[in-house]
Amino acid sequence: MHTIRIWFTKTGEASYISLLDLQRVMGRALKRSGLPVWYTLGFNPHIYMTFACPLSLGQESLVESVDVKTEENKPDFAAWQAALAPVMPTGLAVVRVDYARIKAEQIGSAVYTITLPARAAQAVEEYNRLTEAVVMKKSKRGEKPVDLKAYVSALELKTDGESASFSVTLPASETLNLNPSLLLKFLQERSGLPAEECSILRTALLTKDGEPFC
Fold first, then answer.
1. Could you report the per-residue pLDDT of 76-105, keeping only the tens digit for each?
2. Among 16, 76, 133, 207, which is most buried by a count of CB atoms within 10 Å?
3. What is the three-class DSSP state of 153?
4. What distance lies between CA 131 and its chain's CA centroid?
5. Single residue among 53, 77, 101 that ends a domain in this structure
6. Are residues 44 and 17 in the same domain?
7. Which tens digit of pLDDT belongs to each residue from 201-211?
8. Does the model's pTM come out above 0.85?
9. How is residue 129 annotated by DSSP?
10. With the C-alpha atoms ordered 192, 195, 201, 206, is the resulting torsion angle positive or negative?
């Protein structure tokens, strides 16, 4: 039995597919592909699938992955990708298939690119001058204050005409996961920008040792 990791992008309208719906979408795609994926046992067998560090609704990503199992001795990864390509919906595109080499539990952080209008530069400059940036983080146990400056001391803004962007690395482990929307909301409150003018794109997942998750 092998664990196969399917890497895909989640962009455009697909960013509004919830995790529950994504499970259904990938399940249908795998069935239509005819690939030899392994099904769970019992009265209600279904395709074994595990998603690493699921995204929040409305966020895009270049590094989404789902693990499946197969009893195929020597999987042809190029054939797997070719079989999945025509059955994936708009906004979801398979970019790589390989063995799962690192367990999802080893993910420690994620890298995001946040894009916003150039006129928000003042809010970014203000953030860099602050000594603390406290936001309320919601969890199943309620709300608690989190100082963003403890994790992101400064933002390096890049401007390009009407838009601006910056890259940020945030904790994404099982014990601490900071949603980039917390940072974006903090900036929006200071610039008055509507949410629809800003976007979040995840570009990398890193292990607790800072190595690429693969």
1. 999 999 999 999 999 999 999 999 999 999
2. 133
3. coil
4. 29
5. 101
6. yes
7. 999 999 999 99
8. yes
9. H
10. positive
Residue 105, classified by CB atoms within 10 Å of its CB into exposed (0-12), middle (13-18) or buried (19+), is exposed
CATH of the domain at 69: 3.30.70.580
The structure tokens 């995840």 sit at 202
- Average pLDDT value over all residues in the chain: 93
Note the pLDDT of residue 49. 93
Contact 164, 113 (CB under 8 A): no
Instruction: Answer yes or no: is pLDDT of 139 > 80.
Output: no
Q: Residue 171's domain spans which residues?
A: 106-207
Percent of the chain with pLDDT over 70: 100
Residue 214 in any domain: the answer is: no
Provide the number of structural domains found in the chain: 2
51 Cβ contact list (under 8 Å, min separation 6): 19, 22, 23, 64, 65, 66, 67
Residues 33-72 as b or e (16 or more Cβ within 10 Å = b): bebebbeeeeeeeebebeebbebeeebbbbbbbbbbbbee
Q: Do 211 and 145 form a contact (C-beta atoms < 8 A)?
A: no
The secondary structure of 84-122 as a DSSP string is HGGGSPTTEEEEEEEE--S-GGGEEEEEEEEEEEGGGHH
Query: Going by C-beta distance under 8 Å and a sequence separation of 6 or more, which residues neighbour residue 131?
Result: 149
